[in-house]
Structure formats: C-alpha cells, structure tokens
Amino acid sequence: MKDFDLRIKRHFNDIEIEYGILKGNNNILFIKPGLNGSLYGYNNKYLTIANMINQKYGSTVICSTNPHGNKKFNQLDDAIKFIDEYTKEENLNNYKIYYMGNSNGGMIACKKAYLYPQIDKMLIVNAPLMFNCDLITSGLKKFGQTSVSLIYGSLDPSINNIGLFDYLDNKKVTYYIIDGQDHNFSNDITEFIQLAEKYLYEK
To answer: Burial code of 126-136, b = ≥16 C-beta within 10 A, e = fewer?
Structure first.
C-alpha cells in the first residue's frame, strides 16, 4: 500500500495539525478522523481508503489529524485554507471537496460545513449526538450543496438520538443505520473502509 506523497505540518493556536496527501485530480476527498485521530487510523484504515479512492477515481485524497485543542479554533476553517493553498499550487482549478468525517471529525463538519461552498458532498460516520445537538442540527439545516449521508452503527451510543434528523427539513440530508456495527465498526472494519466509495462516489 502506497504511503502519502506529502506530509505537511501546520501550527495554529498552539496546536499542530498534520495533513497527508495522495496526489490526484481536482476532486478532493478530505478525511477527518475522530478526536486525537491520526492520518492513518487504526490498522491504516484511512490510508487504505485514500489508496482505494485515489487509484479508482483519480481523486486527490487529503487526510488530517484531529488534535485536542482550543474548542474555539475551527479546524475545518484551517482545512479549507490548506486545501485552497494546495490546489492553487497544483493548478487544480474548480475543485470540489467530498468530506468524510468520523466521530468528532464528523461533528465538526455538521456544525460548520454550510459555511464552505467548496464542500460538495459529506459522509458523516457516527458523529456524537449526546452533546452539541442544536449546533449539529442547525448546521445541517443550512447545508445547501449536493448531499449529506449520515451513517450510524446500530450499536453506536448516539443511535437513541438519531430521530433528531427526522425534523431537519433538508432533503439533501439522509441517514442510514448499519446493523451490528458499533462506534468503531469493530464488527467489520472492511464495511467502514467501503463507506466513502458507496456514499460519496456511487450515490
């Protein structure tokens, strides 16, 4: 399996965020892991996704760390600035972002993605619903691009609150329940790896 072509560290608000890049075309798959998650993920799950999408669709894939830090610091804002700088350097004009966020990485996008028209599609996996529910639902209501797919394992703790999405009044947002999976997709990590292609590229 190929490693990232580039690894770049940036420092903001006393935290360090690292980005890993597999070079490709102007379709950008951006992957944000859960809190304190790495570029690679457990058993290289994010790098595996990156290689699959890069090889099959030619997409540029950018993975980010998700360090614990100042909650007032908007990591999504930094990611968009980073992607904008990178695409200008690589002459990737008219780019679109497909966003995959896991757990806290998904919650970040639910709250703020509507602010960034570059984000065309989103795949949100097991974003916690035990707190920040108002910010999550208000952010999703405002999302105006192509689509948001919300994925929850039937054993995830947030499954009891999933009914919140029934009242969003935004037809671009759809949720799906994956039977037998917990927060970390411990039952079958292969199913997690296939989510990006299924919900961002095939739908």
So the answer is: bbbbeebeeeb
